[in-house]
Structure formats: structure tokens, C-alpha cells
Write a structure and sequence with these properties.
Elements: E1 10-13, H1 19-29, E2 33-38, E3 52-53, E4 56-57, H2 58-63, E5 67-71, H3 77-89, E6 92-95, H4 101-104, H5 109-115, E7 120-125, H6 140-147, H7 167-190, E8 195-199, H8 200-206, H9 209-218, E9 236-239, E10 244-247, H10 252-261, H11 276-281, H12 283-294, H13 299-308, E11 313-315, H14 319-323, H15 326-330, E12 334-339, E13 343-348, H16 372-378, H17 385-392
GO molecular function, one term: CoA-transferase activity
InterPro entries: CoA-transferase_III_domain, CoA-Trfase_fam_III, CoA-Trfase_III_dom3_sf, CoA-Trfase_III_dom_1_sf
Pfam family, one: CoA_transf_3
Length: 396
């Protein structure tokens, strides 16, 4: 068995839907032994959402690989006791309940420390566990709206737009995984576990980057720019003879090569376009010169010509085209995972590449409750079959 970065780390996963499963999937991809604890009788609601094949949700399969599943009714004494036994030997607990739910289960920070002082508890939520919005329900669309993200997304004269994916869920899950690996390193130094919190709101705010910095420095509220860059020109989508291309000549040297390839290098001597400040002020006129030249050739030819000159440039691809792009396939960002009895499912691969300890698939997404006896045996927890059955039965 090859070693992975998180080989030997045991994770109890109480999460469901997207943000939490995305976090624990990444931990599992890096080698952690992730045990997904699900409510009977139906388990994670996402099991029953999205296109499916042979009763397998592709949505569920794509975010729950490299996990094993057990069913525990945490409303019952037996189920809660079984969970505590797991926590006693685990390294990490990940949950995405509303703030306060763990405490209601009798799993406050102090109570968890009594069970296992080395346990790292990662909580994913909407707005944080403290503050005036701590108790609010949170969904991606609402958080995108409240964060200011939508206010800078869309065309200049259009309505605010959300991104095409639930970015606040995904960012929260990503930051939670980042927090877990840092807390594991801190435990190496201190011997103690700690609480890690990643909220959807904090995560998306961190992505405001220079737009937030501009506002904090000047008080000027950023506006929607469409596909233009707010502080650089030219930059954006430009029409060719048969469709748009994305071009980002973001330094003076790249811009000079770009305009030279178009036969427009002389524009840089014009008083309207000498400096970036002038180019931003006269963006519309500059874009007009560029589009007139680009209209003389096709998308594919311009992408080839401009990349040959070191100008960042690409086609505007749909998701299907992107997932069949030769570079994407070369990087193994589309993989096929066999699910016994159901066949192969294609899904996204591993975005982080390790030279010596690579991510890999050890388990496909699990059937509900398929690994209870196996997990308790592997983790060295004595539990009879009757006890496991009682712990997994609603109201047991």
C-alpha cells in the first residue's frame, strides 16, 4: 500500500449535502480514513438528488468517494454512544450542522475534550458560530448576495448575478480541509486538538481580494465590469471572425507582443494609449481597434498565433468542451470510478498533484450503512452486531 499525505488519520464525517462532503472528500483523497456517519433510514439527502444510474446518484458519487458509511441514529442513546466511541479513537470530526447542534447532542467542546483531548473538530456553517447572524439558515445564493460578490458579477448595466456554481459551499469546504491539515500539524507541536471553523460568508469575503482592498483604501464601492478588468486594459472577450476568445495581456511586455501580432503596436505611441491609466480611460476605443483586427481570422487561428507569442489567450468553452480538452485529460482531471454492481461513473479527478504521495481512489462512494462492523473492527472498538443494529435503528 502506497503512503499518502493523510495515511493513518481517522475522520468521523457528520456532514451532508455539499460543503462538508467536499471537505471530507479532499481529506479522503489525501489518504484519510473517512467514516461517513448517516441518519437512518435514508442517509445523506444528496443520495436521492440528481441524475442516477442503478439507484446511484452521480451527485452523491462525485462528492463521497474514498469514504466508508455507517448508519447511526444520533437521537437514540445507543447511536450517540456509538458515535462517542468512534470519537474516542478518531483524529478529526467534521460537521456542518447549524451552530449549537453539537452542544445539544452533548458534544460541547469541553465534553469532546473529555472523550478525546487530541480530537480536531471542524465546523462548517453559514455565518460563523458567534455574532448576530450565527443562528440564521444559510444557502449559497443568499450568502453570495449578502457578501457583495453578486454586486460585482454581471454586465455593467445588468442585474447582480450569482456565479454558476455554489461557490460559497465549495470555498467553505476547501477552507475547512485546509484548516484541518493545519490543526493536525499544530497537534504535532502541542499534543492537543482544537476547533476549526470555516463559514461560507468568511470564505467568500476572502475572495473579494483587491476589490475589498480598493474599498477599504479609498471608500469607492466597486461596480460590475462584465468581462473587463477593473484596473487593466485591454482585457476580456474579443470577437474574431467566428466567435469570441478570452485575452489577458496583463503586463506591458505581453501587451506589446499582443498588439504587435495584430499590427497595432503603433497604438502604444498614441497619447490615448501610452499608459495603462490612459488605456483604461479609453477602453472602448482601444477595444474597437483590437476587434477590427481580430475579425480577420478565426478563433482557433488567433488562439494558436497569440499563444505562440506568449499572450494568454483561450477559447470560451462550455463544460463539456472543457472536460474533453486535451490538457484536462492529460492532467487526469476526469477519472472513472467503478461502483460494484452499478458500473463506472466519470467524475472530476484530483486538482493537487503530489510527486511521491499521490491522491488515489481507494473506495467508491459507499452504500448506506455498508461498513459498520468493518469500521468498528478496524478502529479497534469492541461492539457486537446487536449493539450496532440498535444504534442504527430510529428510536432504538
Amino acid at each position: 500500500m502506497s503512503i499518502q499525505p493523510l495515511t493513518g488519520i481517522r475522520v468521523v464525517d457528520l456532514t451532508r449535502i455539499l460543503s462538508g462532503p467536499f471537505c471530507t472528500m479532499m481529506l479522503g483523497d489525501m489518504g484519510a480514513d473517512v467514516v461517513k456517519v448517516e441518519d437512518p433510514p435514508g442517509g445523506d439527502p444528496i443520495r436521492h438528488i440528481g441524475a442516477g444510474h442503478n439507484e446511484l446518484s452521480w451527485y452523491f458519487a462525485s462528492f463521497n468517494r474514498n469514504k466508508r458509511s455507517i448508519c447511526l441514529d444520533l437521537r437514540s442513546t445507543q447511536g450517540l454512544e456509538a458515535l462517542k466511541k468512534l470519537l474516542g479513537t478518531a483524529d478529526v470530526l467534521v460537521e456542518n450542522f447549524r451552530p449549537g447542534v453539537l452542544e445539544k447532542l452533548g458534544l460541547s467542546r469541553g465534553q469532546i475534550a473529555q472523550i478525546n483531548p487530541r480530537l480536531i473538530v471542524a465546523s462548517i456553517n453559514g455565518f460563523g458560530s458567534t455574532g448576530p447572524y450565527a443562528g440564521r439558515p444559510a444557502f449559497d445564493f443568499v450568502v453570495q448576495a449578502m457578501s457583495g460578490f453578486m454586486s460585482v458579477t454581471g454586465e455593467r448595466d445588468g442585474a447582480p448575478l450569482r456565479t454558476g456554481l455554489p461557490i460559497t459551499d465549495l470555498i467553505a469546504g476547501l477552507y475547512a480541509a485546509f484548516g484541518v491539515v493545519n490543526a493536525l500539524r499544530a497537534r504535532d507541536l502541542t499534543g492537543q486538538g482544537q476547533r476549526v471553523e470555516a463559514s461560507m460568508m468568511n470564505g467568500i469575503l476572502s475572495m473579494l481580494a483587491y476589490l475589498a482592498s480598493d474599498f477599504l483604501a479609498t471608500g469607492a464601492v466597486p461596480a460590475k465590469q462584465g468581462n473587463d478588468h477593473p484596473i487593466t486594459a485591454p482585457y476580456g472577450l474579443f470577437m474574431t471572425a467566428d466567435g469570441p476568445i478570452a485575452v489577458a495581456p496583463s503586463t506591458d511586455a505581453i501587451l506589446r507582443r499582443f498588439l504587435d501580432e495584430l499590427g497595432l503596436a503603433a497604438l502604444l505611441e498614441s497619447d490615448d494609449f501610452k499608459t495603462n491609466t490612459q488605456r483604461v480611460a479609453n477602453r472602448k476605443a482601444l477595444d474597437g481597434h483590437i476587434c477590427a483586427k481580430l475579425a480577420g481570422d478565426t478563433q482557433d487561428n488567433w488562439v494558436r498565433r497569440l499563444n505562440a507569442r506568449g499572450v494568454p489567450c483561450g477559447l470560451v468553452q462550455d463544460i463539456g468542451e472543457a472536460l474533453r480538452d486535451p490538457q484536462v485529460l492529460h492532467q487526469e482531471m476526469v477519472i472513472s470510478v467503478d461502483h460494484p454492481g452499478r458500473g463506472p461513473v466519470e467524475m472530476l479527478g484530483f486538482p493537487v498533484k503530489f510527486s511521491d504521495t499521490p491522491c488515489r481512489i481507494r473506495h467508491p462512494a459507499p452504500d448506506l450503512g455498508a461498513h459498520a462492523a468493518e469500521v468498528f473492527e478496524d478502529w479497534g472498538i469492541p461492539y457486537s452486531l446487536a449493539e450496532l443494529e440498535a444504534a442504527s435503528c430510529p428510536g432504538g
